[in-house]
Design brief:
Bound molecules: flavin mononucleotide
Number of helices: 5
CATH class: Alpha Beta
Helix content: 25-40%
Shape: globular
CATH superfamily: NADH Oxidase
Number of strands: 4
CATH topology: NADH Oxidase
Number of domains: 1
CATH architecture: 3-Layer(aba) Sandwich
Length: about 180
């Protein structure tokens, strides 16, 4: 099996991180991989905001935990607290051009896929964080658009936690009978 295939097959979401920060070189490679994703009509309809400020990540975590619990998300209900960002030292927000074409959702998701695979290939862990999007619910949107410097014309697409893994996730069971080949 070649290294690219092995990388894809062994990537897992990481939910526990070491506090050690990733290097700027690693970050640049990851962002470059994101920017090399294919896009409909080569629009590249994205913008990336990287947060490496521990205090800000802690503040966003607290808000998302409290609000997600209030919303009734089941995986928060039996917890006093945990960081929905898993206390990762780096968080990348992928933003999507709000007035791009109908494929922009795909484009930004492909960039997200490149981010997690690039991280894995550099020996880093990652986790895509839909739960973080609570930051942009109507009550908090204005605050976090300002705090994160979200440029006008862009909307948050997804957030991704990145850092050195401090856990080894169990092997994933893949769904069966989900492929048909017509020859
Ligand atoms: C769109 C999307 C949103 C996700 N949101 C979260 C999240 O908020 N929190 C989390 O812990 N994992 C999140 N995940 C990770 C999934 O739970 C994970 O990919 C899935 O369980 C499969 O595990 P694997 O990534 O280890 O293969 C998300 C994944 C995707 C693709």
């Amino acid at each position: 099996m070649n290294e690219t295939i092995k990388n894809i097959m062994t990537r897992r979401s990481i939910r526990e991180y070491k506090s050690e920060q990733i290097t700027d070189e690693q970050l640049n490679i990851i962002l470059n991989c994101a920017k090399n994703a294919p896009t409909g009509c080569n629009k590249q309809p994205w913008y990336f905001i990287v947060v490496q400020n521990k205090e800000l990540i802690g503040k966003m975590s607290r808000l998302c935990f409290d609000e997600n619990k209030k919303k009734g998300y089941p995986w928060y209900q039996n917890e006093d607290y945990y960081s929905p960002f898993y206390d990762a030292p780096t968080v990348i927000f992928v933003l999507r051009e709000s007035k791009s074409n109908e494929w922009s959702y795909f484009d930004c998701s492909l960039a997200t896929g490149n981010i997690v695979l690039a991280a894995k290939s550099l020996g880093l862990g990652s986790c895509i964080l839909a739960d973080a999007m609570t930051l942009f619910d109507k009550d908090f949107k204005e605050t976090y658009y300002t705090e994160l410097n979200i440029p006008s014309g862009y909307v948050p697409h997804i957030a991704i936690a990145i850092g050195y893994a401090n856990e080894q996730p169990e092997e994933k069971i893949l769904k069966e009978n989900d492929i048909d080949i017509i020859k």
